[in-house]
Amino acid sequence: MKTLYSSTFLSLIIAFFVFLGMQGEAITIVQNLEHSFSNIEKPLPKAPDSETDISPITVEVFYSFGCSGCSSFGLNTIPSLQEKYLEDEDVDLKLYITPASDDKGQYYSAVGVKCASEHGKYWEMYRKLHETTEPLSQRETDLLGQELELPLLEFRNCLKSGKYDEEIGKAIDYANQNGITEIPTILIDGYRLYGNQPIENIQKIINDIFSR
């Protein structure tokens, strides 16, 4: 009997540690995702007597093309965010294309997607830029425009015109003002989410804020 008890007790201990190990894995919002929920900065807690803010939650997304993690984020997370929150009156979703100032490929991609929008093909260009495996450049953006059968001369002139420089510059300045040092980054009511975050992580933050 004593041996049976010791064996059972040992089994319970092993089961307990296995359970703890499973709990550790559960920190990741969805299994097998690259980024865990721990890759998030939380705001300082509000004072107990602080008034509850009933205004819409602002979700600001800073992203680009050709950066680490941007393709998966752009093709999966951003469309999911738009589908879920673009028409939600309680969530103010704002997207900012913020190319790195020293990366010409990211710059021409940002310009290219805006030039493509002039011909009703914003999302077609958006997907091609995220899906391409070639190094992004002015020439690559031009070739993608040809694949989409955009008016060749108009599109090329648009790429070189500088007409969107002010708009892109304002987005970059705003990112700098908010201390954005890497992309993608998502700001939500004091929370900062870095890298290729899945929609589930963003949803959890938004739901937690609504439940305060």
Outline the structure in words:
- The protein has 212 residues and is of the alpha+beta class.
- 51% of the residues lie in helices and 11% in strands.
- It contains eight helices and five strands.
- It has helices at 2-25, 70-85, 104-117, 122-131, 138-147, 152-161, 165-177, 199-210, and strands at 40-41, 57-63, 91-97, 185-188, 191-194.
- Strands 1-5-4-2-3 form a five-stranded mixed β-sheet.
- Helix 3 (104-117) runs parallel beside helix 5.
The coarse silhouette is elongated
Cross-sheet strand order for the largest sheet: 1-5-4-2-3
The helix content, as a percent range, equals: 40-55%
State the end-to-end distance.
52 Å
Order of helices and strands: HEEHEHHHHHEEH
Query: Over all CA atoms, what is the radius of gyration?
Result: 23 Å
Percentage of residues in DSSP E strands: 5-15%
- Mean residue pLDDT: 82
Unreliable stretches: 1-35
What class would the helix/strand composition place it in? alpha+beta
* Count of runs of 4 or more consecutive helical residues: 8
